[in-house]
Automatic annotation (TrEMBL):
The keyword Ubl conjugation does not apply. InterPro entries: ATPase_AFG1-like (IPR005654), P-loop_NTPase (IPR027417). It comes from Datura stramonium. Belongs to the AFG1 ATPase family. Keywords: ATP-binding, Nucleotide-binding. This is AFG1-like ATPase. NCBIfam families: ZapE (NF040713). PANTHER family: AFG1-LIKE ATPASE FAMILY PROTEIN (PTHR12169:SF29), ATPASE N2B (PTHR12169). The keyword ATP-binding applies.
Length: 502
């Protein structure tokens, strides 16, 4: 029966996707909202017309099997990401899907089906391969050098901000069998892990080979979110690291804002990074998500803690005290990676207060920010400035800070000199700069012209940061934060609720 269902699924997923029929209609007052974590529309207060995309005719057919979990070679498997996506639409959890997202889901479904079919050859099941674990470790590979590339290629998804890349990858990852050697991790966090392991194996003849062996032994399937390279140290490591990982049989699924050929563009010593791009394109199918919709900006009215203006110190301190309640804020110290300590000016009840200079004008990085949000769920940040050439380095740190906050679903209370868009108006890519109107003899030189920052990496990253700041200020995001916080504070109640649901 399982084989029959699998055959039907494969035949259906191979059928070409019919272009959506767009129907414009006017309806009485309805309620739509946005499920930001999944990148799709759900229910929000709205009047007037809307655009609806009809799904392919076979969606309802496939959705019938979405909840069917079957056992294949002793491993429980599900229907896959496309089937789960269709089930959520059929159940009313999501509205009709974005055609670009559905096309990408078909690629993810193809990969899912291949992995299920070739799970044994890929050595995905950690229990099935446990008797051979010794041979897969780095020491054995050094004694008996051999390459073992996976018979399945991975997938590299890239596209604009807010198009649902993370949601689609999570949908794929959540459908994979629990017994597989798999890991889903943010790229920043992954590189911090790599650097910490390299530090641990310092003194070994080739520590990078050891680290690659440890990673591939633990996780054959790597899902890396927000793949981006801005650091020269990371750029020099990635080529050898992934060459070794792929040689060990690793399979990569990654999301990024940048196409492979545009990674680390104009970076220092980029010629040493180019072989990695070639390897990436050889071992992964590259897929662009072309949706023009930024789902993060489809949130309800702003109800967050983003205050614009000058001399708002009293305002942020007042709201900070409201968030900490009766607790008394005091200076604290948190431990970050490799034994480093981060000084927190004021902290209480999971909330930390910093000035922008203390957090972004000092030599801090992703490791420090990850350490901060392992201890605090809310950040009050005072005095975010307009960014330009004079504070480009601080802008990079702010972008990283927002990325880490978003990954940890942290809450932001801040005062700033402008809206998220205004903060980055002076940051442009090389292409943007070339398209700017040329200066004429009659045109006066303004002060902000001197502060224009032409930087490709920062110019591309700013769109993601603006999008995330917009979402983090929405009602939906704050509700998700509150729900996450409640689960952490009352884990026993959460487990009891889950048990009742089961």
């Amino acid at each position: 029966m399982r084989k029959a269902l699998q055959s039907v699924r494969q035949i259906k997923s191979a059928l070409p996707y019919r272009k959506s029929n767009v129907i414009n209609s006017f309806v009485r007052r309805q309620y739509f909202s946005t499920d930001i974590s999944r990148g799709c529309l759900c229910e929000l207060s709205y009047n007037g017309g809307f655009t609806r995309h009809n799904q392919p005719y076979y969606m309802s057919f496939r959705a019938m099997f979405a909840d069917v979990a079957t056992v294949n070679n002793g491993v429980e498997t599900r229907g896959g990401p496309l089937v789960e996506y269709e089930r959520r639409i059929a159940e009313g959890e999501l509205l009709d899907g974005d055609a670009c997202q559905v096309g990408t889901l078909q690629e993810l479904q193809r990969l899912y089906d291949q992995l299920i079919e070739k799970a044994e050859d890929c050595r995905l099941d950690k229990y099935a391969s446990s008797d051979k674990a010794g041979r897969s470790r780095w020491l054995w590979s050094r004694l008996m050098p051999q390459s073992s590339y996976a018979p399945v290629k991975g997938l590299y998804l890239y596209g604009g901000v807010g198009t649902g890349k993370t949601m689609l990858m999570d949908l794929f990852f959540d459908q994979l069998p629990v017994s597989w050697r798999k890991k889903r991790i943010h790229f920043h966090d992954f590189m911090l892990y790599v650097h910490s392991r390299l530090q641990k194996h310092k003194g070994v003849a080739d520590p990078l080979e050891v680290v690659a062996g440890e990673i591939s032994d633990e996780s054959i399937l790597l899902c890396l979110d927000e793949f981006m390279v801005t650091d020269v140290a990371d750029a020099l490591i990635l080529n050898r690291l992934f060459r070794q990982l792929f040689s060990n049989g690793a399979i990569l699924v990654a999301t990024s804002n940048r196409a492979p050929d545009n990674l680390y563009e104009r970076g220092l010593q980029r010629d040493l990074f180019l072989p990695f791009i070639a390897t990436l394109k050889e071992r992964c199918v590259v897929r662009e998500i072309g949706s023009a919709v930024d789902y993060r900006k489809l949130t309800s009215a702003e109800q967050g803690f983003y205050f614009i203006g000058e001399d708002l110190s009293s305002v942020i301190k007042k709201h900070f005290q409201m968030l900490v309640g009766d607790a008394q804020p005091v200076p604290q110290e948190v431990e970050v990676i490799m034994g480093r300590k981060l000084q927190v000016p004021l902290g209480a009840n999971g909330c930390a207060l910093f000035s922008f200079e203390e957090l972004c004008d000092r030599p801090l990085g992703a490791a420090d920010y990850f350490g901060l949000f392992k201890n605090f769920h809310t950040l009050a940040l005072e005095g975010v400035p307009i960014f330009g050439l004079h504070n480009k380095t601080a802008a990079y740190r702010f972008v990283t800070l927002v990325d880490v906050m978003y990954e940890n679903r942290a809450r932001l209370l801040c005062t700033a000199e402008g809206t998220p868009v205004e903060l980055f108006e002076r940051i442009v890519t090389i292409s943007d700069a070339q398209n700017m109107a040329p200066r004429t003899s009659s045109r006066s030189r303004k002060n902000d012209d001197f502060d224009l920052c032409v930087d490709n990496e920062l110019g591309f990253a700013k769109d993601r940061t603006i999008s995330r700041l917009t979402e983090m200020n929405s009602r939906e995001y704050l509700e998700q934060h509150a729900e996450m916080l409640a689960k952490k504070q009352h884990p026993e109640e959460t487990r009891a609720e889950n048990a009742v649901e089961v």
